[in-house]
Amino acid sequence: MVSPFFTVVIPVYKGVDFLEGCAESLLAQTFRDFEALFIEDGSPDESGALCDRLAARDERFVSLHQPNGGVTSARNHGIRAARGRWLLFLDQDDRFAPGLMQAVFEALGKSSPEDLVHWAFTGVRQQAGLLPPEAGGEPIRFYSQRELGLFYGAGNTHYIWTKLFSVEFLREHSLYFDERIQDGTDDLPFVVAYWHAWFSCHPGGRILYLKTPYYYYEMGNEASVSNRLQPYQPSHLAMFTDLLRDYLTLYKVPEEDCFLLCRQALHTLSYGLYSARGPARRRAARQLWNAPECRRLLDFMGRQHFYSPFYLPWRARAAWLCAALFGSFLGGRFLYEKCDWLGWYLLGGRWKRL
């Protein structure tokens, strides 16, 4: 049997409301040399039967079933089962724009074998597949490793479903998802590990970034893991500090270009404190305050004068204030915005801020 060019991995759990649309976006692809692996993860609804019906509809669709192990386990199942040369991830409630695979195929021809191919996404279905006006007519941009701090500003770093992965490279370097992570924050640790391994082996590698949002991310699925509270876990701190380490030591990113990463780190960790309640919040705060990586992150932000509304509450170890600020950020933002300006003023008004 001839191996397909692409393998698409779709974890499926309680997906009956979205899976048909996801599958239709695959059938609409103008590039047709692919297989799509629907990994049904022990779903209690009719998702498994729906996967089987989809597989009967098109020979490129493959229905695979496993006991419930979570999305990370399902994705690892897909990596092991993939027959394609290149791997793409697609969530069951999202969609590919019709030209995604063709655009990625053509991008591979424009890049060197050392480069990685990434693309933009959108939460507005009508914008999927359309080059945005702010792109200035330029559909692609190359980012060197030193420019990965600037690439963070594209809002693309965290997500596995905006990236192309080499199946052979994943297996050779035993790059799989951490199955202990079950709260929807598994993407960035996987990306950090893949980038680290890839660029260590390809020191001249770059990122070819397709500015067209070829991926549609569904914002209205309230059952999505990413829409649930995410109490702090040690992996939340590690994914940011590991990436910052690689920025500075492996990719030689200028320190001043690490601002957005550091700011996002405090934002996400504060969400972890907000999501934890009562004794769980106090335990999480103690873990964070005692972590050397946390102290180094704050010290780095202080040396660089990187401002965040959460910076002074973190320095004061005021977990309750971090949680209150994040609650305000999600709500009316009155407290958040007042503390944002107050903290910046107390620090002299000269720190870098958004």
Written overview of the protein:
The protein is α/β, with parallel strands linked by helices and about 350 residues long. The protein has 14 helices and nine strands. The chain has helices spanning about 20-25, 45-55, 70-80, 100-110, 150, 165-170, 185-200, 235-250, 260-275, 280-290, 290-305, 310-315, 320-330, 335-345; strands spanning about 5-10, 35-40, 60-65, 85-90, 95, 115-120, 140-145, 165, 205-215. The strands form two sheets. The protein has a five-stranded mixed beta sheet, sandwiched between helices. The N and C termini lie far apart (about 55 Å).
Question: What percent of the residues sit in helical stretches (DSSP H or I)?
Answer: 40-55%
With strands numbered from the N-terminus, the spatial order across the biggest sheet is 3-2-1-4-8
User: Tally of extended strands?
Assistant: 9
How would you classify the helix and strand content by structural class? alpha/beta
- The low-confidence parts are none
The number of helical elements comes to: 14
Radius of gyration: 21 Å
Q: What best-fitting shape do the alpha-carbon axes yield?
A: globular
Helix and strand sequence: EHEHEHEEHEEHEHHEHHHHHHH
Strand content: 5-15%
In whole angstroms, the N-to-C terminal distance is: 53 Å
Largest sheet: 5 strands, mixed
* Average predicted local confidence, pLDDT: 96
